Amino acid sequence: MAVTTLGIAACTSRAPERAMQPANRLGREQSPYLLQHAHNPVDWYPWGADAVAKARREQKPIFLSIGYSTCHWCHVMERESFERPEIAELLNRWFVSIKVDREEHPDLDQVYMHAVTALTGQGGWPLTVFLTPELKPFFGGTYFPPERRGTMTGMKELLPAVAEAWRARREELRASADELTAALGRLLNRDVAPGIFSEQLLHAAFNQAAGAFDPAHGGFGDAPKFPRPHELTFLFRYWARTGAAQSLEMATATLDHIARGGIHDHLGGGFHRYSTDSQWLIPHFEKMLYDQALLARAYLEAYQITRRPEYAEAARGIFAYVLRDLADARGGFYSAEDADSEGEEGKFYAWTQADVLRVLGEEEGGLFARFYGVTLEGNFSAEGSAEGGSVSGGGSSSASGGEHGASVLHIDQPLDAFAALNGLAPDALRRRLAASRERLFAERAARTRPHRDDKILTSWNGLMIASLASGGAALDEPRYLEAARRAADFILGPLVRDGILLRRERRGDARYPGTLEDYAFFADGLLALYEATFEPRWLAEAKRWTDAMVRRFWDEERSGFFFRGKDEEPLIVRAKELYDGATPSGSSVAVLVLLRLGRLTVDERLETLGRRALEAAAPLLTQTPFAYPAMFAAVDVALGPTQEIVIAGDPGSPDTAAMLRAVHERFLPRAVAVLHPQGPERAAVEALIPYVKAQESLGARATAYVCEHFVCTLPTHDLTQLIELLQASGASAARGRGEQGGG
């Protein structure tokens, strides 16, 4: 989400396919967002040749509206404007109106969001853009009310004004659109000389993070607060490289506050989109698949580093939620759940004290209410949350704005401290709270659920595959590995056509060529799945789609990656994207995949491309380093030292399994791991990774080879010695033995 003209673009939804007047063209689409507008009186077109041809034939400007199905202000604008016949009549008379689901077309959203930001200084959804028939923007904004509201222009005033400007000053508007389009081209595909990436860039990113850190509540900056887990995973890598305790403390403190806050769904697992306050107390209640995937990975890494069980518990809670509520029966994962139900944001999630006591009884209900901050006056109002929240200082449950007496569950005190203050044994308290959560979860299940966006996106599924694979390995949970396998198999089925990776599938309908993030995120998920299972087919698929990614998106002239495929019809500009926003950029993940896959398979070509991409990005990374935390994960790998870990042995033997477990349970961010099996998959592995032919299982026993830049220690059968080698390898990295990059 981003800041709009009304504040935070919170997200809610209504039923996506309701009947009103006869369906317009959008009724033939599969996007839940477009279907929500299928019965508007607006003569909507989906993005495509028909709409553009009409605009050019009739020389009308285009009214472009971009959003997504769980976007609150998108639905406000629909209800206030697009359902009103008088506003629809203005749109139908003077414009060609196009509706776009940003999650289906992130390449369009990227270009036109930058245009509106350049015009107004801010962006968000709904995104409203006026285009020439040549698709060049000349005016735009985000949410517009139907009538003027204070300084905000209303649609009834705006549409006639734009139409009159197009009639009277058409050439002036075209010239302005040409100028803006040229500026966008320079912004989204900078022509700058390559730079040098070095360890100093990592230090600069860390220093910027430390300057923005909130020591009271964790996270960075003030309200609203977004999790951005890739900021935390960067801090873990910086700690592993330098040993800087502050880096680890900032990351774990943030994860602690997020886990205790109202942004965490304490009953159902998983996390909401963001916090409207600085304390992580009052969330915007939407749940996105990508947030679950990225936060799960952050909690898993925190667990690998600290061995604190609450981090593993948070990751398990995320996986439980995703596998229960976002899993399609065919294997893929749905995109999101909405923030509101029955027209109220948070109604599904908030609790009154009376309801807690009714379900649990006085004794258990009272204990639960004290622990989770459920008070008589409440801390939450749906109206306040939708526009930025309504909370008092200090994160207490007695926040203002609780006109309905509803509370968002949160934890003010860690369990051990609460137990001590209340004279309770921690284990007994833990059991009682778990039993109460189960009863309240069952009670909540009878409520009206928020709308679920059931489209399956390749990119976000790639993120979830990587997290489930990592979770299955780190937590020794086969069911997570099986879920990752099924999701990968699903993507490789209906979402592959004629050798092309498609972006979206819904109810049997798969379409739209994948963007860079689809290829990069999916390749990263496949690579993680290989290192979790050591099944060579996943490595082969990772190599296949990485090679395809390079063919489709690599910029041969300037290095780096375009966001949209080179063989597709170009948009008004050829854009790249490096900024790591709510998700890591496709470029960041693509570079990391090139470096890690190149190192694992000894493919020098892939590593060279990864380094060239970092050199191309270096001038931008220097300007605002902490804006690119995921790219710095790639810088960290490129600088080294890297480790290559080969376990040779029978995959089914206990000694091999023990060695693999020793690798999986440790945080080794610059390591790649290989199993050289003594069995039927041996030839397949050797074909993909030729160097392992020389690393044999010795004496019919599991044998470990720990190498640094392919210089290996003596092989060992001893598990204790392997653990020592892994620890020594990590320690050498923490001493900061980095190579200078960039040439």
Helicity range of the residues? Answer: 40-55%
The overall average pLDDT, rounded, is 92
User: CATH homologous superfamily of the domain at 3-188, by name?
Assistant: Glutaredoxin
Q: What's the gyration radius in Å?
A: 26 Å
Structural class: alpha+beta
Report the CATH C-level class of the domain at 3-188. Alpha Beta
Biggest sheet features: 5 strands, mixed
Between the first and last Cα atoms, what is the distance in angstroms?
A: 38 Å
Strand order of the largest sheet: 3-5-4-6-7
CATH topology of the domain at 3-188, by name, is Glutaredoxin
Low-confidence stretches: 1-19, 384-403, 731-743
| Beta strands, count | 24
The CATH architecture of the domain at 3-188 is 3-Layer(aba) Sandwich
Strand content: 5-15%
Which term fits the overall shape? Answer: globular
Question: What's the tally of helices?
Answer: 27
What secondary-structure arrangement, pairings included, does this model have?
Layout: E1 3-4, E2 7-8, H1 32-36, E3 44-46, H2 49-58, E4 62-67, H3 72-82, H4 85-94, E5 96-101, H5 106-120, E6 127-131, E7 137-141, H6 155-168, H7 170-188, H8 199-212, H9 229-242, H10 245-260, E8 274-275, E9 283-284, E10 287-288, H11 289-306, H12 309-326, E11 336-337, E12 340-341, E13 344-345, E14 351-352, H13 353-360, H14 362-372, H15 382-386, E15 406-407, H16 415-421, H17 426-445, E16 452-453, E17 456-457, H18 458-474, H19 478-491, E18 496-497, E19 500-506, E20 509-513, H20 516-533, H21 536-553, H22 586-601, H23 604-623, H24 629-639, E21 643-649, H25 654-664, E22 671-677, H26 682-688, E23 703-708, E24 711-712, H27 719-734
Parallel strand pairs: 3-5, 4-5, 21-22
Antiparallel strand pairs: 1-2, 4-6, 6-7, 8-9, 10-11, 11-16, 12-13, 14-15, 17-19, 18-19, 19-20, 21-23, 23-24
Helix pairs in contact: 4-6, 5-7, 8-24, 9-10, 9-11, 9-24, 9-27, 11-12, 11-18, 13-14, 18-19, 18-20, 19-20, 20-21, 20-22, 21-22, 22-23, 22-24, 23-24, 25-27
